[in-house]
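Inverse folding, one chain.
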């Protein structure tokens, strides 16, 4: 059978990786969707091929950084993405961020009405959290962009090498995951989420370090005030410390959440923190229950206005996800026995983070949170869940210029895989809660 022909599978996979890394990335996701469907989702490689898989993402992102920063190499930049977002701009998000910080510096220097005039800056008075609008940097945007990209890229490379060296059996999966459209989309934009995810990984990984635990919690609070949604990490940490009966740290996390809320309330009238936020709904580049709801109402039903109907669709999708979660919970084919309570609790900040942002409208780079859960899923999940997980990462941001029939198929794949993974992680998120409830029930029975 072709699925068991690992020699052929490696030849096809390595040929594909070589082409997409060195020549043209454009159809990476579509290629590997078909690859996994045809060859199956088990990747076994000989040791001699291991290094090729491991270095493929490193080579690709070095190429992307250089071609994005130097105009003489810009022709190669067009070969490192899907080429249909933000008019092929190089690293647009970080440039907008730095322009915003420079504008805020000049505004703070020359204006007595800082928040009243902040709408004149590139982002206006919305986009991220309140702390983002208090950052003032007198920075050369080109130099700042280059320094930030090189610095963060080095840390991302270190993170990738460290993870793959510790888990060599999963190197081929990691190569494909780190080259997936989700990761490449974030890197193409050089969105703040790259920094948030790397920071969150470091802070949560070192949360057991008693010496720096309060500092790590405080740093999570800071990144939450910059871009709001990481506050879900703090919510996850509340249960983390509750589970391990570290009530002192739990109270510190609760105080951090209260600080987050107070800080937002103080600047709520001065900044357009909620109503002004963009809500993406593209079939090819957006995920989240609200994104899907808007897409179905505006694009599929060809209707405009009447946001109450979007909320009705949202309620239906949310109910669907909970129904699938209930079905998975009671399915004999899918078991959660591998997920120990302690192991799940260690991943709880990431799980709550993903479940939280999934309720909203997000560009596909928000699914970077799933990459932080990749080893957890690859090691513990059943084959079908691993398959669905990989298909989601590969279909999360696809070219919008494809034929409409293919776009519709890819959207159905992305939507269904997203709902399933959300429902699956919802089940895992309830494991510690059910465990606590069972303990309470058993105590009462005595």
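Residues assigned per position:
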């Amino acid at each position: 059978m072709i699925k068991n022909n690992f020699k052929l599978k490696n030849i096809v996979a390595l040929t594909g990786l070589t082409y997409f890394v060195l020549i043209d990335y454009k159809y990476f996701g579509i290629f590997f969707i078909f690859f996994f469907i045809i060859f199956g989702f088990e990747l076994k490689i000989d040791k001699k091929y291991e290094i090729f898989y491991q270095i493929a993402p490193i080579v690709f992102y070095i190429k992307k950084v250089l071609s994005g920063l130097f105009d003489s190499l810009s022709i190669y930049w067009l070969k490192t993405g899907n080429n249909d977002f933000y008019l092929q701009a190089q690293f647009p998000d970080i440039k907008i961020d730095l322009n915003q910080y420079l504008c805020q510096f000049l505004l703070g220097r020359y204006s007595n009405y800082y928040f009243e005039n902040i709408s004149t800056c590139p982002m206006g008075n919305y986009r991220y959290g309140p702390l983002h609008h208090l950052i003032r940097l007198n920075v050369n945007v080109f130099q700042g962009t280059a320094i930030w990209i090189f610095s963060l890229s080095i840390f991302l490379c270190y993170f990738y090498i460290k993870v793959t060296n510790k888990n060599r059996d999963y190197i081929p999966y990691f190569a494909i995951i780190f080259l997936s459209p989700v990761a490449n989309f974030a890197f193409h934009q050089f969105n703040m989420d790259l920094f948030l995810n790397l920071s969150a990984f470091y802070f949560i990984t070192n949360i057991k370090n008693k010496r720096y635990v309060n500092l790590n919690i405080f740093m999570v609070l800071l990144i939450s005030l910059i871009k709001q949604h990481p506050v879900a990490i703090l919510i996850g940490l509340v249960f983390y410390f509750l589970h391990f009966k570290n009530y002192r740290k739990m109270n510190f996390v609760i105080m951090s959440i209260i600080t987050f809320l107070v800080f937002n309330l103080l600047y709520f009238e001065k900044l357009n923190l909620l109503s002004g936020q963009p809500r993406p709904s593209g079939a090819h580049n957006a995920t989240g229950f609200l994104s899907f709801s808007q897409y179905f109402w505006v694009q599929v039903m060809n209707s405009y206005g009447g946001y109450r109907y979007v909320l009705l669709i949202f309620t239906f999708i949310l109910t669907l996800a909970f129904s699938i979660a209930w079905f998975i919970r009671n399915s004999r084919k899918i078991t959660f026995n591998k997920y120990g309570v302690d192991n799940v609790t260690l991943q709880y900040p990431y799980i709550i983070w993903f479940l939280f942002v999934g309720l909203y409208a997000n560009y596909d780079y928000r699914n970077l949170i799933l990459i932080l859960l990749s080893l957890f899923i690859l090691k513990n999940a059943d084959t079908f869940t691993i398959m669905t997980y990989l298909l989601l990462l590969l279909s999360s941001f696809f070219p919008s210029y494809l034929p409409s029939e293919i776009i519709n198929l890819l959207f159905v794949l992305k939507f269904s895989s997203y709902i399933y993974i959300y429902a699956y992680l919802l089940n895992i998120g309830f494991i510690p809660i059910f465990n606590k409830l069972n303990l309470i029930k058993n105590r009462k029975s005595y």
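Strands lie at 286-287, 362-363. Residues 25 and 80 are 5 Å apart (CA to CA).
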